[in-house]
Write a structure and sequence with these properties.
This protein is an alpha/beta fold. The protein has 11 helices and 12 strands.
Length: about 325
């Protein structure tokens, strides 16, 4: 297997056809087809299905595509590292869960542009369930994650503790605005939550707290993996949900949603940065990790991350 085969395969998948990939890669179509055929023969599986409208990626091809992306990225990182071994320069891909991007994304991009001008920072907003796989495969360099999942092969550095709130639509019956609500009261009516296969960041914590407190989980009115759609459903009065306050701050301020503190210890998550222990770390990756921690703690201190409290670099909590 050759690196150019990986490059050609990724190029074809990204382009959607061999002809378009040939134009962008400046390689003859026949040469591309031969390289992919050789690659499929070596792997013993079909990677692409060729049709009149372009190519379709097989299930095996999708798996190989994800690993090929990671390999090519690590190669580019290696080139950058040896060319400027002491410089903070290069490309860094940061994975951010949907539930944290609303508070973090814009302040982080602004800080990166001002403090790390030679670093090209890419933000991937993802469902939490996808982030660890991408980190293992080398497709992203680091991610914002939670401490409730065993992370033996990762290095986790906490940044903030974030409380969860019971969120209802403005017309949905509930306590007075800003009044607290008990688990028993929450359990008496249905909830909208993310699906169980994407439960690392929110749902698993919610279910654990209900179990520890001996309160039965509420029935589910719906399972929705899109944060935008979930908030719209709650706003429409279908059912309440449980989310971090920062994720709905704009809608709460506008009066479309109402947030209630949950009167129970433990209904919170610890957010931190997560790195793979098995992949090399460049100066740029370390600098971005430090920057993410600094931005999150500053947002907590200045009230820009509502419902969250900073965890200092030495582990002390506010």
């Amino acid at each position: 297997m050759e690196l150019r085969q990986l490059k050609y395969f990724v190029g074809i998948v990204d382009a959607g056809s061999v002809s378009r990939a040939a134009q962008s890669l400046f390689v003859a179509q026949s040469a591309l087809s031969k390289q992919i055929s050789d690659l499929e023969q070596e792997l013993g599986v079909q990677l692409l299905v060729r049709g009149r409208g372009g190519v379709q990626v097989t299930e095996s091809g999708q798996v190989f595509y994800e690993y090929a992306q990671g390999i090519l990225k690590q190669l580019e990182d290696a080139r950058t590292a040896v060319r400027a071994p002491e410089s903070i320069v290069g490309s860094v891909i940061l994975g951010v869960p949907q539930s944290a991007s609303a508070a973090l994304a814009l302040p982080l991009l602004q800080a990166a542009r001002a403090q790390l001008p030679q670093v090209s920072l890419h933000l991937n907003e993802e469902l939490t369930g996808n982030l660890l796989d991408q980190l293992r495969q080398g497709r992203i360099d680091l991610t914002v994650f939670t401490s409730n999942v065993p992370l033996a092969d990762f290095d986790f550095e906490p940044m903030a503790d974030e409380d969860f709130y019971w969120i209802r639509g403005a017309a949905y019956p509930g306590p007075a605005p800003e009044a607290g609500i008990t688990l028993q009261a929450i359990a008496a009516q249905p909830l909208i939550l993310s699906a169980s296969q994407h439960n690392h960041c929110l749902r698993a914590i919610i279910e654990q707290v209900f179990s520890e407190q001996g309160v039965a989980m509420p029935s589910l009115a719906a399972e929705i993996n899109s944060v935008h759609t979930l908030k719209r459903a709650v706003q429409a009065g279908i059912a309440p949900t449980i989310l971090p306050l920062a994720l709905v701050a704009q809608e709460v301020d506008a009066g479309d949603l109402v947030a209630h503190p949950i009167l129970c210890n433990g209904m919170r998550r610890t957010l931190g940065t997560c790195l793979s222990r098995d992949l090399p770390q460049t100066h740029a990756k370390r600098a971005v990790r430090t920057l993410v921690g600094n931005v999150v703690r500053q947002l907590c201190d200045q009230g820009g991350w509502r419902g969250a409290r900073a965890v200092r670099a030495d582990g002390t909590r506010d």
